[in-house]
Amino acid sequence: MRSVPLFASAKERVVAACILIMLLCANLLWHYHIFKKITAKRSYYAKALVLNQYPKGKKQILKLQTPHLVFYTSTYEKLKDLRDRYVAVAMRTKRLRFADLFRPTYHYAYIRKVYPKDLRYRIKEAIAAQHGSKLAKELFPALVVATAMSKETRDILARYGISHLVAISGFHLGLLGLVAGVVLGFLLRPLVQKFAPFMNLSLFIAFVVAVLAFCYTAFLGYLPSLVRSFALLLFGSLLAFRGIRLLSFETLAWVVAVVVTLFPAFLFRIGFWLSVAGVFMIYLYLHHFSHRPKWRIFIELSVWVFVAMLPISYAIFHRFEPQMLLSPLLSIAFTFLYPLFLLAHIFGVGGVWDFAVDWMENGQFLSMQMPLWLLALYCAILAAAIRYRFALLLALLFSVVVTIYQVA
User: Which pTM value belongs to this model?
Assistant: First the structure.
């Protein structure tokens, strides 16, 4: 079926924009209602997930996620490791502002009690028990049930430019959905051909995969990155089945607008905009080179996204490490190994993969400076690359030259 544009006229675009604006206003009004309800009392009592915990001087810093907001707090108590545990928390609302519902800020709070270990935490313990090193004990549970990692582990992943592989997102949902779709197709196709030849098997499999993805998202506690990815995948699937052109920068812009309308807090999340930038880079490559053989696209796309994202990474994180050059190879390998990681842990032999992470060593990073005017120039080149192929090659050259110049 031939793909069609998302909108056929400017009038349809205006109507869609008006609908999104009304939905955004309604969403903000609902959040304001929640804000007034929370601040009506001196303290906000809620069940919270401990997203992170780390020492800072004599204090323990905790990052907590409640049903309505994410915030930081601190305590001088010598707490045990509560990461990925649910706790009952009381937060003082005197300093709470409406904007705090959309971005993490610091508030005075205390933990009233710690809830018993839930299924997700027990899975984390079961996976960690299959490994020997601290890195493996933290990395593999994060790959399966999105558990928290220490700063040391996150720094090691950043050195190799593979943090995006561990933070469960649309990439993981896509891989899991692909595996589930292939398995379901293999099992159901003979039955459908025999008993229901007129059934739309592809649509049924897509529905089942979407339900499984939603269940997985709910099981992990509606993590922001996973909710965002699920919304993108679901919306993209709906467009694909309607015959809407997905490889379109306008479609990407409208998808981002829909997600921001539904989840306004994503406006303040660096992770969201980095994921949008990553998808944009993928679109740029496929826009110009989708005619190439699939094996070549698979390899070149990993290299292109890595190199193209470097200037943006410099502007945000101000660091580069030689180990990052392995990122494209590790990303390619991860695509094939991720399902095997899952199978090994399901059968209780996840320790056989310890060798895959034990070779990672700490290294020195190089400080990288990326002035805003230079970043703006790079973004202008990327914008030009939407129309001109040579601008895409110029962006690639720009990234390489900036990296070599600062490293040298």
Answer: 0.80
